[in-house]
Amino acid sequence: MRLIVVGTGGMAKNHVEHFARIPGVEIVGAVDTDATRLTAFCDTFDIKKRFLSLDEALAWGEFDAVTNVTPDKAHHPTTLPLLAAGKHVLCEKPLAENHEKALEMTEAAERAGVVNMVNLTYRNVAQLQKAREMVISGEIGTVKHVEASYLQSWLVSRAWGDWRSESKWLWRLSTGHGSNGVLGDIGIHILDFAAYGAATDIDHVFARLKTFAKAPGERIGEYTLDANDSFSMSVDFANGALGVVHASRWATGHLNELKLRIYGERGGLEVTHSPNGSELRGCLGDDTETATWKVIEVPPVPTNYERFADAVMTGSSQDPSFRHAANLQRVLDLAMVTETERRELKV
C-alpha cells in the first residue's frame, strides 16, 4: 500500500509512526500548505515526495491511500477530491464540522467504492473491544443503564502545554477558529466509546453545554474564547437503555481519562482508559450478590492503522466507517440544538 499523509501537524507524527511499522505499507509522500512545516516533517521521516497543495499530489497520483490529518474544517474539502480520484481514505475525527458535510463525504465514499475509515482512536483500546464482545454475547444480560465520561484537565494544568499562550490549544477554545468546543473535539470520542461498548446506537439526546470565564473580555490575542468547555448529556439507546454522558476540560487530576460503565440485568462492566493504561472490570455471576468486581485480562487488538492497511490490501471493509462517524456527527449537531431549544430530540 502506497500511502501519502495530508496535513503534517501534531497528529501526523502519530500516524506516520504507526503506519511505518506495518508490513507492506510504504509512505510515499506528504502534503501541507506550510512549506516550513512540510519540509521539517518530511526530513524527520525521510519522505521524498513533498506537495504544497492537494492538487499537486493528485496530479502525481502514484499512491493508493491517504491518511488525512488536516484540521477539522479541512476534512471535507480535502477528502472529497481524494474520493473522486478513487483513493482510500483514513480521516481524523471528526469526519466533518457538521452532519450535512459528513453525509456528503459518506455518500461520495460509498459511490466510489473505496475503503473509508475515521480514526476514532479509542477503538484501539482492547478492553473496550472485549466489553462489546461480552455485551453482544449476553454475559451481562440486557443493558439497562450506561454511564460514560471523558475527563481532561488542560484548562487547570500545564501538563500538555499552556493554553494561555499556545495556538494549538487556543484554537480549540474559539468557535471563530473552527472549534465546536469539548463537544466537537472529544464528544465524538466518548459517544463512540459508549455506543460501541454498549453495542447499541443512540436514538434520543438532550444536552447542556457550558462555557466558563477564562480571560479578561474572554479573549486572548486573535482568539475569542467562546467554545464550550463542558457538557452533560442524557441519551436513550436503541435497545431501550438509558445513558448519561459527560465531558470536561476542567477535570482537575484527570489528564485524559475515559470511563464507561455498562449495567445489565445480570452483570456489569467498567472500562477505564488513561495515560497510565487501560482496565476492564466485571461484576458477573455470583459476584453480583456481593458487589465484587474483578479485573478481566484482555489480549491486544489491531489498531485502526493496521485495520485500515489490511482493508486496503485485502479489499475488505472495516469499521469505524464514514457512515458511522456521520451518524455520530448527527448526534453532536442535535446536541447543540437541544442546548438552544432546551428540548430532547430524536436522532
From TrEMBL:
Keywords: Oxidoreductase. It holds the Pfam family GFO_IDH_MocA. The keyword Glycoprotein does not apply. Residues 129-270 form the GFO/IDH/MocA-like oxidoreductase domain. One of its GO terms (molecular function) is nucleotide binding. The keyword Transcription does not apply. Residues 2-119 form the Gfo/Idh/MocA-like oxidoreductase N-terminal domain. This is Myo-inositol 2-dehydrogenase protein. It comes from Rhizobium freirei PRF 81.
